[in-house]
Protein 1
Amino acid sequence: MCSVFDVDRQAEMERFLDIYGVEHPERMIFGRRRRPTQQVSIVTGRHGEPQVENAIWHLYLAKEGGSWKPHKKYWSINSNWKKLASRPEYRKSRCLIPATAWVESLRGKHPVEFSYGEPYFFCGLYKFWGSTLSCSIITLDAHSATKIYHEKSLPMIAPKDSDFVSKWLSGSTHTDQFTDFLQPKIEYDHCQLTVRPVARATSTEYKGDPVIVSK
């Protein structure tokens, strides 16, 4: 379950977004250790062209005091791939979430930072609550090579492929085209997945050297 992620290296991220013609990069929220229920930046295709919008990282919200807040009864920062078929958001409102790293732990202990050394997109879902947007990150089964760091899941990462990005953001209800992508993979654009121990999940203090994840 992905519960902390980074969006840094601003110049690299802006170049990455430009590859896909993403509009309004000036809206991007940058920062390390982005946490659940915070505002994060997502990319949607709901206006025709892909563009940056900002959303609450918690898919289900509830009205409190005249505004929308994360729903206290439904923890929904992630959407498990096995439940996607029943989610109308999967058929109608898919998004991409720009990132540069994420943090996982093993049963709450031994947190590590995962990264590819370059920006990428998490695949996610978004939802409207009045004029407020919310989002979640899709999680897949754990990969055999990453279970020693986090045994439950691996976030779904979009391939660095303009065709995939266009289809994902298209709003097409034909989700069968994404079935092959719902398998955990550690490959990304010929980049090696690395892990590095950190002091705490929300800390940027490293406790060891990076290790390359191999199959």
Note: The chain has a mean pLDDT of 94.
Protein 2
Amino acid sequence: MSDKSHFFAHLARLKLINRWPLMHNVRTENVQEHSLQVAMVAHALALIKNKFFGGTLNPDRIATMAIFHDVSEVLTGDLPTPVKYFNPAIKEEYKKIEKIAENKLIEMAPEAFREDYAALIDHHYHSEEEAFIVKAADVLCAYLKTLEELAAGNQEFKLAKKRLDKTLKEYQSEEVDYFLTRYVPSFSLSLDEITLDDL
């Protein structure tokens, strides 16, 4: 059995895939850094659900799933949301492309760990509850990006914020609402404001 694999070299290239490619960005965001933020937020959502709303999730598994939630984009690139969801046919075809890319990456993983990575990358291994937490964290992080861009004076993200705000409300999720109410307002403050508050 060969122990050579290009899997990790491919994953390292996630930092070369920029998000929001059709929009002017004050600060460019890549898929690798986005995935870390999604992992942090997903971990927090799982903790919130467990501590306050009767959840029994594994926050560590949720965080690891979130790290890998966009890995297929190293092969497909980041297709802008307005294009991806332009109509049901495009959405359906893109899901097929994502699935092919996911399977290709799983095949690249070292043979000894292939099932372990399949459990993180292949959505069939995820419970509905786990998948929701990761998706909600993904949307929350996109929402935080719109807040940062708008705070920097970039009105390009105005409609995106409105759309994401609507999506988050439609979730009717206690853990999402908790995060939005208690933690999101800080993202609109300056460094001095969030620092002085903790002194």
Note: The first helix runs from residue 7 to 11.
Protein 3
Amino acid sequence: MTETLAIGTFSEVDETALEDDLGARIVDSLDVAAALNEETRGAVRAIAFKGHTRFDGALMDLFPALGLIANYGVGYDAINVADAQARGIAVTNTPDVLNDDVADLAVGMMIAQCRRMVQGDHHARSGAWANGQAFPLNRKMSGGRVGILGLGRIGREIADRLAAFKMELHYWSRSEKDTPGWTYHDDPASLARAVDFLVVALVGGPETESMVSAEVLDALGQEGVLVNISRGSTVDEGALLDRLEDGRLAGAALDVFCSEPELDPRFAALDNVVLQPHQGSGTHVTRAAMGKLQRDNIAAFMAGKPLLTQVA
């Protein structure tokens, strides 16, 4: 009877490693895991979790021997950490290994939004350029003012990259950080009011839900651009759409959405947005590193060794 259960849709490489290295049983979803027989569930000591379905205490109780939930990804807001702690269940995630890819995508989306690269690609492919149609001038990004909402690991990587674009750096964080002279703001609206671009790099969860509110979007203003690579829940999506549609906001570049993978159909009608399919960490190298770190945490737990990246 296996002691490791993997829940989610894993790559073929990760599936093979989970089975070969940990003897894991792999199921597609929490619903399938919950439907396993009592004997199978009772043997599970560690769960490799990949997904965004809510994993709460009621589900944890179905696995009485469970001691570890190893999350695939840096964000672990789908896991009710308080419920896990109350049951003596440790939680780990896979930080740092994805910082570069997420930061690269954030900067890439900013450039694509300002220089209308998606529209430019269509202009070239469609023959419009060859037929003498001029592509409209667009917005310069370098030298602008950018605010980082959440100066954690990923936020810092984004800020470091944007500094190379000669941008004036502002940030909000729970506390002031040691920076090369970047301007700290003690509330999100103050940050938004001071910048041209607002990059959201917050953790997910109840504490940050709709932190980018209608008030913050109005502070960013009609020349402002919102970039979100955190969680869809961090932005009041309805307020964002209203302002993108009526011109109270210049544009947005988004890798995350409230109801992903289903998008509000209003996004598809907009020409001032860059939309990505939550692919911030989506490179072969980084996804392999995330899977390895997840497995390494489980191996450490099974061997009675300290966990590598424990969050609770």
Note: Residues 99-275 form a domain with the Rossmann fold fold (CATH 3.40.50.720).
